[in-house]
Amino acid sequence: MRKLNRTALIIGASGDIGKEIARSLLYEGYTTYLHYHRDKQTILELMEEYGPEKITPIQADLSGDNGVQVLKRSVFTSIDTIVFNAGFTYYGLMTDIEEDTKKEMIQLNITSLYSTVQAFLPEMIRRRNGNIVVISSIWGEIGASCEVLYSMTKGAQISFVKALAKEVALNGIRVNAVAPGAVSTKMLQNFTPDELQEISAEIPMGRLALPHEIAESVSFLLSEKASYITGQVLGVNGGWN
Length: 241
Hints:
Oligomer: single chain
Order of helices and strands: EHEHEHEHEHHEHHE
Strand order of the largest sheet: 3-2-1-4-5-6-7
CATH topology: Rossmann fold
Largest sheet: 7 strands, parallel
Protein backbone atom coordinates (compact mmCIF):
# COMPACT_ATOMS: atom_id res chain seq x y z
CA MET A 1 0.00 0.00 0.00
CA ARG A 2 1.37 3.40 -1.03
CA LYS A 3 0.75 6.00 1.65
CA LEU A 4 -1.07 9.06 0.39
CA ASN A 5 -1.42 12.52 1.78
CA ARG A 6 -4.94 13.04 0.49
CA THR A 7 -8.28 13.88 2.04
CA ALA A 8 -11.60 12.59 0.75
CA LEU A 9 -15.19 13.52 1.45
CA ILE A 10 -17.40 10.48 0.89
CA ILE A 11 -21.10 11.20 0.66
CA GLY A 12 -23.25 8.25 1.61
CA ALA A 13 -20.44 6.36 3.33
CA SER A 14 -22.71 4.21 5.48
CA GLY A 15 -24.43 2.39 2.61
CA ASP A 16 -23.22 -0.94 1.28
CA ILE A 17 -21.29 0.60 -1.61
CA GLY A 18 -20.23 3.69 0.35
CA LYS A 19 -18.78 1.57 3.15
CA GLU A 20 -16.63 -0.36 0.67
CA ILE A 21 -15.49 2.87 -0.99
CA ALA A 22 -14.50 4.20 2.44
CA ARG A 23 -12.61 1.01 3.25
CA SER A 24 -10.77 1.14 -0.05
CA LEU A 25 -9.66 4.75 0.38
CA LEU A 26 -8.76 4.30 4.03
CA TYR A 27 -6.63 1.29 3.12
CA GLU A 28 -4.87 3.44 0.51
CA GLY A 29 -4.00 5.99 3.19
CA TYR A 30 -6.62 8.70 2.71
CA THR A 31 -7.85 10.87 5.56
CA THR A 32 -11.63 10.89 5.27
CA TYR A 33 -14.79 12.76 6.09
CA LEU A 34 -17.53 10.13 6.09
CA HIS A 35 -21.05 11.43 5.60
CA TYR A 36 -24.08 9.49 6.75
CA HIS A 37 -27.75 10.23 7.28
CA ARG A 38 -29.05 7.68 9.82
CA ASP A 39 -26.62 4.74 10.04
CA LYS A 40 -23.98 6.01 12.46
CA GLN A 41 -23.11 2.46 13.56
CA THR A 42 -21.41 1.67 10.26
CA ILE A 43 -19.24 4.77 10.58
CA LEU A 44 -18.30 3.82 14.14
CA GLU A 45 -17.29 0.37 12.93
CA LEU A 46 -15.04 1.92 10.31
CA MET A 47 -13.48 4.17 12.95
CA GLU A 48 -12.75 1.14 15.10
CA GLU A 49 -11.28 -0.71 12.13
CA TYR A 50 -9.08 2.07 10.73
CA GLY A 51 -8.62 4.44 13.65
CA PRO A 52 -10.50 7.63 14.58
CA GLU A 53 -7.60 9.84 13.49
CA LYS A 54 -8.36 8.96 9.85
CA ILE A 55 -12.13 9.48 9.99
CA THR A 56 -14.36 12.45 10.75
CA PRO A 57 -18.05 11.46 10.75
CA ILE A 58 -20.62 13.94 9.43
CA GLN A 59 -24.34 13.52 9.94
CA ALA A 60 -26.52 15.43 7.48
CA ASP A 61 -29.79 14.95 5.62
CA LEU A 62 -28.95 15.88 2.04
CA SER A 63 -32.55 15.34 0.94
CA GLY A 64 -33.42 18.52 2.86
CA ASP A 65 -32.73 22.14 2.07
CA ASN A 66 -29.96 22.77 4.64
CA GLY A 67 -28.05 19.48 4.37
CA VAL A 68 -25.16 20.85 2.34
CA GLN A 69 -24.74 23.80 4.73
CA VAL A 70 -24.36 21.31 7.60
CA LEU A 71 -21.86 19.37 5.50
CA LYS A 72 -19.80 22.45 4.70
CA ARG A 73 -19.66 23.57 8.34
CA SER A 74 -18.43 20.12 9.37
CA VAL A 75 -15.37 20.06 7.09
CA PHE A 76 -12.50 21.99 8.67
CA THR A 77 -9.57 21.07 6.41
CA SER A 78 -8.95 21.18 2.66
CA ILE A 79 -10.22 18.23 0.67
CA ASP A 80 -8.98 17.12 -2.72
CA THR A 81 -11.38 14.24 -3.38
CA ILE A 82 -15.17 13.99 -3.42
CA VAL A 83 -17.05 10.75 -3.91
CA PHE A 84 -20.80 11.35 -4.15
CA ASN A 85 -22.62 8.10 -3.40
CA ALA A 86 -25.90 9.27 -1.87
CA GLY A 87 -29.21 8.11 -3.24
CA PHE A 88 -32.32 6.01 -2.90
CA THR A 89 -34.78 4.62 -5.40
CA TYR A 90 -38.54 4.23 -5.70
CA TYR A 91 -40.20 1.38 -7.54
CA GLY A 92 -43.57 2.23 -9.06
CA LEU A 93 -45.37 3.93 -11.88
CA MET A 94 -44.53 7.55 -12.58
CA THR A 95 -48.15 8.52 -11.94
CA ASP A 96 -47.94 7.07 -8.42
CA ILE A 97 -44.99 9.17 -7.25
CA GLU A 98 -45.93 11.51 -4.42
CA GLU A 99 -44.77 15.11 -4.52
CA ASP A 100 -42.62 14.78 -1.38
CA THR A 101 -40.82 11.74 -2.81
CA LYS A 102 -40.13 13.60 -6.04
CA LYS A 103 -38.73 16.63 -4.24
CA GLU A 104 -36.55 14.55 -1.92
CA MET A 105 -34.99 12.53 -4.74
CA ILE A 106 -34.32 15.58 -6.89
CA GLN A 107 -32.83 17.38 -3.89
CA LEU A 108 -30.62 14.45 -2.95
CA ASN A 109 -29.44 13.25 -6.36
CA ILE A 110 -29.24 16.55 -8.24
CA THR A 111 -29.40 19.69 -6.10
CA SER A 112 -27.23 18.38 -3.25
CA LEU A 113 -24.69 16.98 -5.69
CA TYR A 114 -24.40 20.36 -7.40
CA SER A 115 -24.27 22.28 -4.12
CA THR A 116 -21.75 19.93 -2.49
CA VAL A 117 -19.30 20.21 -5.34
CA GLN A 118 -19.95 23.96 -5.63
CA ALA A 119 -19.05 24.36 -1.95
CA PHE A 120 -15.64 22.68 -2.21
CA LEU A 121 -14.66 23.37 -5.80
CA PRO A 122 -13.10 26.85 -5.28
CA GLU A 123 -10.41 25.41 -2.99
CA MET A 124 -9.66 22.66 -5.51
CA ILE A 125 -9.34 25.27 -8.25
CA ARG A 126 -7.06 27.42 -6.09
CA ARG A 127 -4.82 24.42 -5.37
CA ARG A 128 -5.12 23.18 -8.98
CA ASN A 129 -5.77 19.68 -7.70
CA GLY A 130 -8.96 17.71 -7.32
CA ASN A 131 -10.80 14.52 -8.11
CA ILE A 132 -14.55 13.99 -8.16
CA VAL A 133 -16.36 10.69 -8.72
CA VAL A 134 -20.14 10.41 -8.81
CA ILE A 135 -21.87 7.06 -8.32
CA SER A 136 -24.65 7.17 -10.90
CA SER A 137 -26.47 4.12 -12.30
CA ILE A 138 -26.98 2.09 -15.43
CA TRP A 139 -30.53 3.51 -15.39
CA GLY A 140 -29.06 6.98 -15.78
CA GLU A 141 -27.69 5.77 -19.12
CA ILE A 142 -30.54 3.67 -20.52
CA GLY A 143 -33.57 4.36 -18.28
CA ALA A 144 -35.79 1.93 -16.40
CA SER A 145 -39.53 1.44 -16.46
CA CYS A 146 -41.06 1.95 -13.00
CA GLU A 147 -37.95 3.87 -11.97
CA VAL A 148 -38.49 6.96 -14.09
CA LEU A 149 -37.70 9.46 -11.34
CA TYR A 150 -34.54 7.62 -10.30
CA SER A 151 -33.45 7.27 -13.94
CA MET A 152 -34.02 10.97 -14.54
CA THR A 153 -31.91 12.07 -11.58
CA LYS A 154 -29.13 9.59 -12.32
CA GLY A 155 -29.07 10.77 -15.92
CA ALA A 156 -28.73 14.34 -14.66
CA GLN A 157 -25.71 13.25 -12.63
CA ILE A 158 -24.05 11.93 -15.78
CA SER A 159 -24.68 15.21 -17.62
CA PHE A 160 -23.27 17.09 -14.62
CA VAL A 161 -20.08 15.00 -14.72
CA LYS A 162 -19.54 15.47 -18.45
CA ALA A 163 -20.11 19.22 -18.31
CA LEU A 164 -18.09 19.94 -15.18
CA ALA A 165 -15.17 17.85 -16.42
CA LYS A 166 -14.81 20.19 -19.41
CA GLU A 167 -15.08 23.28 -17.21
CA VAL A 168 -12.35 22.36 -14.73
CA ALA A 169 -9.94 20.19 -16.73
CA LEU A 170 -7.38 22.99 -17.10
CA ASN A 171 -7.54 23.53 -13.32
CA GLY A 172 -6.06 20.09 -12.67
CA ILE A 173 -9.40 18.60 -11.60
CA ARG A 174 -10.79 15.35 -12.97
CA VAL A 175 -14.51 14.49 -12.84
CA ASN A 176 -15.87 11.04 -13.64
CA ALA A 177 -18.81 8.77 -12.89
CA VAL A 178 -19.30 5.11 -12.13
CA ALA A 179 -22.56 3.63 -13.38
CA PRO A 180 -23.20 0.32 -11.60
CA GLY A 181 -25.69 -2.22 -12.84
CA ALA A 182 -27.45 -4.47 -10.35
CA VAL A 183 -25.43 -4.62 -7.12
CA SER A 184 -26.04 -6.93 -4.19
CA THR A 185 -27.06 -4.27 -1.65
CA LYS A 186 -29.98 -3.41 0.58
CA MET A 187 -31.41 -1.34 -2.29
CA LEU A 188 -32.57 -4.62 -3.85
CA GLN A 189 -34.20 -5.92 -0.69
CA ASN A 190 -37.68 -5.42 -2.17
CA PHE A 191 -36.99 -8.12 -4.76
CA THR A 192 -37.70 -11.78 -4.02
CA PRO A 193 -34.95 -14.40 -4.45
CA ASP A 194 -36.67 -15.58 -7.63
CA GLU A 195 -36.73 -12.04 -9.01
CA LEU A 196 -33.06 -11.55 -8.19
CA GLN A 197 -32.29 -14.80 -9.96
CA GLU A 198 -34.17 -13.57 -13.02
CA ILE A 199 -32.14 -10.35 -12.99
CA SER A 200 -28.90 -12.32 -12.68
CA ALA A 201 -29.92 -14.45 -15.65
CA GLU A 202 -30.26 -11.29 -17.79
CA ILE A 203 -26.69 -10.20 -16.98
CA PRO A 204 -24.08 -11.70 -19.33
CA MET A 205 -21.76 -12.46 -16.39
CA GLY A 206 -24.64 -14.26 -14.69
CA ARG A 207 -24.53 -12.57 -11.30
CA LEU A 208 -25.00 -9.32 -9.40
CA ALA A 209 -22.04 -7.07 -8.71
CA LEU A 210 -20.56 -7.00 -5.23
CA PRO A 211 -20.14 -3.65 -3.46
CA HIS A 212 -16.35 -3.96 -3.30
CA GLU A 213 -16.23 -4.24 -7.11
CA ILE A 214 -17.82 -0.80 -7.39
CA ALA A 215 -15.35 0.52 -4.81
CA GLU A 216 -12.39 -0.82 -6.79
CA SER A 217 -13.66 1.03 -9.87
CA VAL A 218 -13.78 4.25 -7.85
CA SER A 219 -10.25 3.68 -6.60
CA PHE A 220 -9.05 3.26 -10.17
CA LEU A 221 -10.64 6.53 -11.30
CA LEU A 222 -9.06 8.35 -8.36
CA SER A 223 -5.63 6.88 -8.99
CA GLU A 224 -2.74 8.06 -11.15
CA LYS A 225 -3.50 5.13 -13.45
CA ALA A 226 -6.49 7.19 -14.60
CA SER A 227 -4.58 10.48 -14.85
CA TYR A 228 -5.80 11.17 -18.41
CA ILE A 229 -9.40 10.10 -17.81
CA THR A 230 -12.02 12.77 -17.19
CA GLY A 231 -15.63 13.32 -18.19
CA GLN A 232 -16.19 9.58 -18.52
CA VAL A 233 -18.84 7.15 -17.28
CA LEU A 234 -17.42 3.79 -16.25
CA GLY A 235 -20.11 1.16 -16.60
CA VAL A 236 -19.66 -1.58 -13.99
CA ASN A 237 -22.55 -3.80 -14.97
CA GLY A 238 -21.33 -7.24 -16.00
CA GLY A 239 -22.18 -6.48 -19.62
CA TRP A 240 -25.84 -5.88 -18.79
CA ASN A 241 -26.45 -3.08 -21.31
